[in-house]
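Exercise 7. Given the encoded structure of a 134-residue chain, write a plausible sequence.
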């Protein structure tokens, strides 16, 4: 695992759902980052001392999997962690899941970008939910 070096942040990325081009993008942006793809929870192996700095939940056709992955990974967040949820307006189930994730006590600021939702875990900021129209 990479560690904190100077001002360089240690990144441990996870993606749950179906494979996406995000895999290549994240790996090319930060080659030293640890990246794990999991198509289901049996593949989402996390060491007890491993934090999740970035999680991309992209299987919007399977809200139950995304909710369970959130449940598993939310316990491993730090104040610098960010989760990205793809397809938050895809279905009634995903809209309900997005609302549930926003309400989670570990989540601070959230951004609704219509198709993508961003969850930040920095609790030093006042909990706020933003809707960005563009």
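Solution.
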């Amino acid at each position: 695992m990479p560690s904190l070096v100077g001002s360089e942040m240690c990144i441990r990325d996870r993606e749950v759902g179906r494979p996406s081009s995000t895999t290549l993008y994240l790996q090319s942006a930060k080659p030293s980052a640890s990246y794990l793809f999991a198509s289901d929870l049996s593949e989402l192996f996390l060491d007890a001392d491993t934090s999740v700095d970035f999680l991309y939940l992209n299987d919007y056709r399977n809200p139950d999997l995304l909710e369970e992955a959130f449940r598993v990974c939310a316990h491993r967040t730090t104040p610098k962690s960010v989760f990205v949820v793809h397809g938050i307006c895809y279905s009634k189930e995903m809209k309900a899941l997005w609302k549930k994730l926003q309400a989670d006590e570990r989540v601070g600021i959230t951004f609704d970008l219509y198709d993508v939702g961003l969850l930040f875990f920095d609790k030093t900021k006042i909990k706020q939910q933003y809707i960005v129209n563009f």
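Remark. Confidence is low (pLDDT under 50) at residues 1-12. Students should compare their own answers with the one above.
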